[in-house]
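An instance as discussed:

___
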Amino acid sequence: ISIDTLSQSIIKCLCKIKMNDPPPPPNPSKRELTLNERNAVLQALLLRSSPNFILQRGAVKRIADEFNVNRNTIGRIWKRGEEEPHRTVKSKRFPTKVMFLCAVARPRHDTHRNQLFDGKLGIWPFITVEPAQRSSRNRPRGTLVTKALASVTNIEYRQFILEKVLPAIEEKWPRNHQRIRIQHDNAKPHIRNDDPQFQEAIRRSTFDIQLTSQPANSPDLNVLDLGFFNSIQSLQHQSAPRTVDELITIVQDSFQQLHHSTLNNTFLTLQTCMEECILHNGNNNYKIRHMSKQRLEREGRLPISIDCNPAVLQRVTRQDN
């Protein structure tokens, strides 16, 4: 028999075997479900879920095997069946922002009033209230509308310091602590430490008040930026305000709801950051120390102040000499 005849016979046999082979099983990942099957899957998922819509363990795998589909398909059907919260925003690139002036101090016992001073002096928004220029479906023309200030100058900042911060100190500060240092950062709108109007106002005060600036480029040395603002924002993000007035109300409520222990823990963290700054020659390439402050507070062993590391004391002594 020739080679050509043998090769043609082998090819014909292979073709017959190929044609007589059973078809491969369908790939579950490529199978498309009909609308009725999708509804049946959703009903099966609901039967295997709790009243809080939490699926039982292994429910997705069992339903995927029952309908011969991929588990990801079952997961997508379950997610599409959930009702998404409806939120509208004018633009995600330019959300409405409001600047606040916040004044806090470390919580302490007020012996004069015989109560705890929570350290929260106040938080005030930089806003203006103007009548609406034209009518809309939300309000008629002339209605007073709250608007956030686009920028803050030293005029507004000085006004807030004199009319809001200093009166709050006179009202809430414990009488057994007369020495007060107001620390602010080095932003351009902030007034100078020797501002004449501020100096004239503190002369009439019953406290020894001075205005100081924090070290430049050191946000870890500001108790607000260090952690207090993040704690307020975590509470504020639980709500979805639609107007500037609602945003201001939510921020002020979050400020009042925050427990005084959070502010006290932030001041302890500030002390550790000061120590780390000295050890790293004023740099900020360090990790913030964790002390398990909540556990120490539960056990009644939370320190009032952090003990200074001997290495820090030696470094400061060498620099002074």
